[in-house]
Specification:
GO cellular component, one term: extracellular space
Shape: globular
Largest sheet: 9 strands, antiparallel
CATH topology of the largest domain: Gamma Fibrinogen, Chain A, domain 1
Domain Fibrinogen C-terminal: 136-306
Number of strands: 27
CATH architecture of the largest domain: Alpha-Beta Complex
InterPro entries: Fibrinogen-like_C (IPR036056), Fibrinogen_a/b/g_C_1 (IPR014716), Fibrinogen_a/b/g_C_dom (IPR002181), Fibrinogen_C-term_domain (IPR050373)
Strand content: 25-35%
Radius of gyration: 23 Å
Protein name: Fibrinogen C-terminal domain-containing protein
Organism: Littorina saxatilis
Number of domains: 3
Helix content: 10-25%
């Protein structure tokens, strides 16, 4: 079984099942993400595929490259060293066999010419889309800033961009940073002027100003749609200190109170404020299933016994300093970079 990948490199690769790798790997290097591994293979003429496994350090992946032609999709696989490892195979290095069959022909009917939308240009029988759009006719917004990056926006600039995560009812406006694979900023709080301690209905829908100017939050529903479509790394940037990295960070649906989960945390200056007894669920005025909003008076994610550090306040908030104490935070950015080379839609 194979899964087609999306994006610029996805057109050239198929992803095989988790827990299986190709034993013919001839060389191995480290990459910052699974997309790094795929891009390195794409740039190497002899590379026919790559085994991708989590590395020993947070934010690191092992990329094991293979050479030679394949005799079909995902053939000759063997059990991987870890269940989360998998193999990604280049389509142009695969030999396929065909059988001859008797067919009947009919007179072709006229078809409507493909009309490229949103600034796309017709190139033969397909549309070449601007980096902001995807789809056969460029009719859809990119799903995240990483996809815009994969589609050629790799100049290190920043801009406000409409994206539409898989399943989202409408596009959302976010700030994109086109470096390190394309970061999507879903929460930006640069001063205590804006009061983020709002009721549940407001926080569910989203609040704030222009992403390039002021404070904004895309909303709880958008967090769920966004992190459900692929695997993401969260860079939790507090007080302008980066590198508080969470691997495979997700938010659950409303029925779970937007419960937080993640695989691994690597510390920067501060500690892991989400490291409390699970479940880590959201409470606010109008949605207080655990009574934590009534007890604390602040909207945010709380663990068992209302432990944790709520981030939706009307001023500075406390966060773990990594040494059994707290630090006052007066600015926060939640930046997401896609780790997986594919989307789950």
């Amino acid at each position: 079984m194979s899964i087609a990948l999306d994006g610029m490199n996805g057109e050239r690769f198929v992803r095989c099942l988790n827990g299986l790798t190709n034993s013919a790997s001839t060389s191995e290097v480290s990459g910052r993400s699974s997309m790094d591994c795929i891009q390195m293979c794409s740039r190497t003429h002899d590379c026919s595929g790559v085994n991708i496994c989590p590395g020993s350090m947070s934010g690191q992946f092992k990329c094991g490259f293979t050479v030679g032609l394949h005799q079909g999709d995902c053939m000759d696989m063997s059990a991987a060293s870890q269940p989360s490892c998998y193999y990604v195979q280049r389509k142009d290095k695969t030999v396929t066999t065909t059988t001859t069959s008797v067919t009947t022909t009919t007179t072709p009917t006229s078809t409507t010419p493909l009309l490229c939308q949103n600034g796309g240009t017709l190139n033969g029988n397909q549309c070449d889309c601007l980096y902001k759009y995807i789809g056969a006719a460029c009719e859809k917004h990119a799903r995240d800033c990483s996809e815009a990056y994969d589609n050629g926006k790799q100049d290190g600039a920043e801009e406000a961009l409409f994206i539409r995560p898989t399943g989202a009812p409408a596009p959302i406006k976010v700030r994109c940073q086109y470096s390190w694979g394309g970061a999507t900023i879903l929460l930006q709080w640069k001063s205590s002027i804006s009061n983020f301690n709002q009721d549940f209905a407001t926080l569910k829908a989203g609040i704030g100003d222009d992403p390039m100017v002021g404070n904004y939050f895309v909303g709880l529903d958008s967090l769920y749609y966004f992190t459900s479509q692929a695997d993401y790394e969260l860079n939790f940037q507090a007080n302008n200190f980066e590198d508080h990295i969470y691997n495979n960070f997700t938010f659950g649906p409303e029925s779970s109170s937007y419960a937080i989960s993640y695989d691994q945390f690597s510390s920067g200056i501060y500690g892991d404020g989400f490291a409390v007894s699970p479940p880590l669920t959201f409470s606010a005025e109008g949605h207080d299933t655990d009574g934590c909003y009534a007890a604390k008076g602040k909207a945010g994610w709380y663990g068992a016994g209302c432990t944790g550090y709520p981030t939706f306040t009307d001023g500075n908030f406390d966060w773990s300093n990594g040494n059994e104490g707290t630090v006052s935070v007066d600015s926060l950015f939640m930046k997401f970079v896609r780790q997986s080379p594919y989307y789950d839609d």
